[in-house]
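So, could you explain this one?
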Amino acid sequence: MKKIALSLLTFAFLCLLSCSTSHKLATLKPEPDDASPIIYQNVPSFISLPINVKLKDIENKTNSYLNGLIYEDNDIEDDDIEMKIWKLAPITIKNSKETNAEKITTILPLKATIKYRIGTKTMGLNLYNTKEFHLNGIVTLNSKVNLNNWRLKTETELIGLDWNESPTMTVFGKNMPVTYLINPSIKLFKAKIQKKIDEAIEKATNFKPNVFAVLEKICTPFQMNEAYESWLRIVPQEIYTTSSHLKNDSFLLQMGIKCNMETIIGQVPETKFDANKIALKIVNKIPSHVNANIVAVSSYQDASRIMKKNFAGQEFTSGSKKVTVQDVNIWHKSGKMVIGLDLTGSLNGTIYLAGFPKYNAEKKEIYFDELDYVLDTKNKLLRTANWLAQGLILKKIQQNCRYSIKPNLEEGKKTTLNYLNNYSPMTGVFVNGKMDDIQFQKIELSQNAIIAFIKVNGEINITVDGLE
């Protein structure tokens, strides 16, 4: 009788011992779908890009193109004229101040030597009379201005000439004053001066390198949030521009960018800026209010790492049983998201859950609809760890898989506003604007990433102040 009692006691002790030790769970992993490129439909965004170019900048650039001898024609045979023109002092460019006129006035101090041939060649004889004039004065020119193919195009007209010295003509090796003769002869070099000014201003005002340097800078992905490792990437498609407008001492070019905006979670993404793929289009008006449609792309690897933080220090208990999540892995399988949880404690092993990610707009949170153990995991839990298979712990796990993104959206708005308050990514470039609340649109799953679509209304202005 004592032996039977001892045996029963030993059996009970072994049962208790076996229940208090960990069980090893071997489950079949639902293999992820084959990886493929992320394909999604992005809705374009529009950003205002006003460019302010001071006339002083155009003046400086024009002076850099015109120095010393600015025109030379040594062939008298083609049109009976030889001409050399020198710039004597820096050119001045200012607003012409004509009412309702988009014109600039250019003041050019110059001197010129002109050889003018009158006569003919007949019967082998040169019956020419060549006159040489010397001019020293200040030329005033007015130019109509418009924008064409990234450059300012001018139509210049010489409207005045004030002499510093009386014009002279070489007679028998001496310079003789001939003011009464030279004034009617201004037409000889008028067209040359006008053309030279037009060419210099066009060369000085090629805005394309400046605009594209700005675009390349702002299209370089920059970190929005260090904790969530989020990066904003802008991919321009087209540039819109209206006609140039002259106001006070500046030219205003109202431009806008049609682009895709993406938020990438994880490592810094590569830039997608390609100047060769950006088209310039002329439009009548650029809207000031913009819609930014942002695509937030998070790889499953990065999402796994972020969700792991939600489980840090969390224990899931049922009576005396308890488990801790050591690692989290997420991937895509047949339209669902699979969540693999590595457990230690009363049960060692990996359990697999699957569900559909959803967004609750009212609570601003992500949750998983129909989240449940995958079939193989559920069957094995029912046989070896029924306490874990029960709905109570599953609900607790679901709560950790449900997380509010309201702080993320608020932090994202706060961070974005920092870049809309006179942010200067490079010299002479300033970003300003305002934004409304961030609106979460929808979630889509690809085979290697979670894709969230976000809409932001507001104003974004990237001002280029100056022309270097």
